[in-house]
Amino acid sequence: MLPVSCVIVILLLLICAPIPTQAQHERWQRVYTGEEFIVEINPESLSFEPGHTFRAQFRTVFSKPEPISRNSTTRYKIRLETVEFIATEKRYRYYETSLLDPAGAILQTSSSTSSQDWKQFKDGGMMARLFAAARALPPLGRWTVVGHRYGDGRADEATEPYELARLNGTLVILDVDMTAVGTQRCSSPSYRSHPLSDKEFFLKQGISLDSLGVKAIPFGGIVLECGTREWTPPRSLILALPSGNILMLWKGVFLEPKKRH
Asked: Considering only the top CATH level, what class is 141-259?
């Protein structure tokens, strides 16, 4: 029989073992399946830039390795592409592209920031399919308010004012061309990703991320602004929760919406 100390060491090694390859692959979501390749999207890759622009990372895996160029003997099997979209104009460009060999090593990387690289995509095409997949990633989508929190992290209670209590069950829509909280709509929203540290958040909001239950923020903080006068105040802040829900600053209170499926 093994000594107790050895058993403890073995258990710790099992707990700390690397995540299996299959579990690592689960972060990619299938977008398209072809005869010779598949296209997937990284659900944690969505980011927002100024000018109604957002980016997402896609992975194309070929059934057989492809030549890196016409006269090259070097072959790649995976193409990683960060695609940038202008939501209001149905335009796109490849922000960054990497080619990987069958073992997963990067063979070549290229990027583009030229305004001449923007192209129009048509409804029903592959790029329209990729646009729709990116548009469905959190925090975009349709959500239902399941609670709210104050700056000190307190959740809603039975003694809350009626105006706050009745927000539970409210539909929240976050889209690139329209947002809504219940009946209050914004027809010209803009999103901007903003990396947040607990210190910075405390200095700006006077509260800590930890008190709100925010342990990790996959897509950072997202500043949401309404370009019209339909919302008062016109600016909101969106944070991610470990549960998969989000927190949305609304009229001085953090709403907690849950994604609808």
From this structure: mainly beta
- Which has the closest alpha carbon to 219: 192, 201, 254? 192
Q: What is the residue extent of each domain of the chain?
A: 26-135, 141-259
Query: Over the stretch 184-238, which tens digit does the pLDDT of each residue have?
Result: 999 999 999 877 665 565 545 555 666 566 654 544 688 899 988 888 778 888 9
The architecture in CATH of the region 26-135 reads Beta Barrel (2.40)
Mind listing the pLDDT tens digit for each residue in 48-82?
Answer: 998 889 999 999 999 999 999 888 889 999 999 99
C-alpha–C-alpha distance, residues 236 and 255, integer Å: 11
pTM value is: 0.78
Cβ count near 31 (within 10 Å): 19
Contact in structure between 56 and 83 (CB atoms under 8 Å) = yes
